[in-house]
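Re: the multi-chain job from yesterday

Posting the exact lines I submitted so nobody has to dig through the queue logs.
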Amino acid sequence: MSIVSAAQALVGVNPVPWARVQMAFTLACHIILVPLGVSWAFMTLIANYRGLKKHEPESLLLAQRWSKYMAVTFAVGAVSGTVLTFEFGLLWPRFMGQWGDAFGVPFAFEGIFFFLEAIFISIYIYGWRRLSPWAHFWTGVPVVLSGILGAASVVAANAWMNEPSGFTLDSAGNITSVDPWGVIFNKAMPLQALHMIVAAYVVGGFLIASVYAMGLLRGRRDRYHRIGFLIPFTVAIIFSPIQMLVGDALARWVYANQPVKFAAIELVPNTASDVPETLLGHLNADGSVTGGIPIPGLASWLSDPSTGKATVVQGLNTVPVENQPTIAEVNVVHLGWDVMVGLGTFLALLSAWYALSWLFRRDMPKSRWFLRIAASTGVLAVITMEAGWIVTEVGRQPWIVYNLMRVEDAATGNTGVWLTFLGVFALYIGVAVTLILVLRLMSRRYRGTTDGDDDVPYGPRPRPHLDERPVG
Amino acid sequence: MSTAAAVVLFIGVMAYAVFGGADFGAGFWDLIAGGADRGARPRAVIEHAIGPVWEANHVWLIFTFVVLWTCFPEAYASITLTVFVPLTIAALGIVLRGSGFAFRKAVTRTSSKRNFGAAFASSSVIVPYCMGAVVGAIASGRIPAGGVAGDPWGSWINPTSILGGVMAVVMAAYLASVYMVWDARRLADDSMVEYFRRRAVVAAVVAGVVAFAGIFVLHHDAPYLYEGLTSRALPVVILSALCGAGSLYLLLRRSHRLARVLAAGAVATIVLGWGIGQWDCVLPTSLTVAQAAAPSGTITAVLVATALAVVLLGPSFVLLYTLDQRSLLPGEGVRDQASAGSSGS
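And the result, structure tokens for all chains:
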């Protein structure tokens, strides 16, 4: 009988936590590809520009190769994005059924930018040796623009969940009219979109640079690797301090508009002034905070410097308990916040080191330690971004649409979600591990040989019989 | 208004059937191409045909989903609630297919190639089957509206869904074989032209037979669609049959370029026939297009976005096509050779 009861227990598994875990997992994977899709084209164009202006063959070679890697990243992102479009419905059918007509609007525009980006990546890859050099350079610009606008559209949809607007409801809570403009340009959108786009440039820059930093560390100190490091690293370094300013503005916006999320970020159970900024530490069920290093009054001061330590920070208790994130969720949000701010500050300090070195020596820091740290910035930047995304998503709990729909009311009733999660998890991990193995195999095989034009998604069709005349 | 949104939605479905269908069909031929030696040459043509657009055609699926959930949110919610299982299999299959294809290209050992190839090819058959089964579930009225889930298994394991699934696989195989006759010609591989031409003829005949048999299935199992197909959608059904017969004739005459156009036309019109056949329901018998439609503000936004897409993407496609036809210029850039020590990237 125990087998039967076990089977019954499995059939009756609550889908809500599994739906949350599956969505979080697939989004966490997809978001790693996003910065590359958004910012790589910009760095490719810098390399292209340098190559043409300074007649630098290494820069042109980098631009040419990056355009191909970009295409591969874009294709993988298209697949993981396809999975997400399935999941919106499969995991959150009631959310989509009720709010799809508002939430969906930004995606309609995102679709255009997605198509445009795909076509112009294609045109850019085709354009090598088919267009005049400068005409070809300009075909890359739409890739940069559509990447930025596409990211802004998707973030608009997410921001709408934080700050739903642009619709009217009847007494039963159904949408009766939609103002598309009001949906897209909801109040959370401008800063949230800016924060994500700048993040894409920071993370994309550090990710690419860290690969070349590794090459430099292994002694490949040629011009090709140097330029391959300097272009993306400089981009990331410029955007890092900007990101601190944008993030600061966004935090203050959250303070003013999403007090519960802010209370979770700062571990504030009860409304108070003179709130300390607690580094690490956690909130207990009784409302006390243990562990961590409190910096007296700093959270209040940062929230509104004009009133300083007297600034009142609203606590979790401003809303009924059932509308607050759970204690565990509060601690996740707080930890995510600490990780994001901590690593973000570290990356900005690294910028300062690099900037000073350029100012005084007209070169990047010579220390091997600099290269070692630079090689790790890719991973660190990804962790920073993931932490920030956790803050905004977990901080909204228990709502999927802030103050309008709870997560458990949005989820599917299909009890098999735990199974689909296991399937998705196993598949993604399998693909990731295989990818690493295959890439290592390839790099070993290709070392010192040519890599041709073909085999690139969105690239020209290989023409084995026609394409062999020498060029250059 | 809601009619315009439904038209846009169906343009997406047709485009996915024609472009995505050909990609899936290529996987079908890959699956049955035989052992590593015998199948090597057809697989080379298949890789050549899919390579440049690897997974790009899923943009049509994403487009369709976005229009569906934005303009007809209740329909999208009802579909995903009820046919949870085949849609989940399809989503996983899409990942497996894309990665299997990419990895097979990247590895060299025969056994590895075989494993990745099997993942790619078998999911290329399973995914369209699942999609066709979902169409069958919708068309036979097995998806209830109103936020309740229908039968999680019976909704997609039934005569109409099996018909839909088989139809999707057969049509994909038919399209792909006709396209690959053309690809083999571009590769100047005459024996492969003949190889795929023979298969295209067989697939065309099988597709015709399945479609014909389908009429009886629908008569018993999906009366609403059957009624529509034999009345308002009849001209489209006849057009589809003519396209199919025409492409078969042209294949036999070895007029490959036009055969491609007619094959795509046959598939597109079958999908269109389904749409017109179940008009004016989005979920037959339980939800009409007008009932499911989003408020006018949303639909206007989607139509504006679509118009914008046509204006922006049309010229871009023309530019891409021109570049494809253009020969290489000498001069710009560098021939992509790894200069010494530059391979760590």
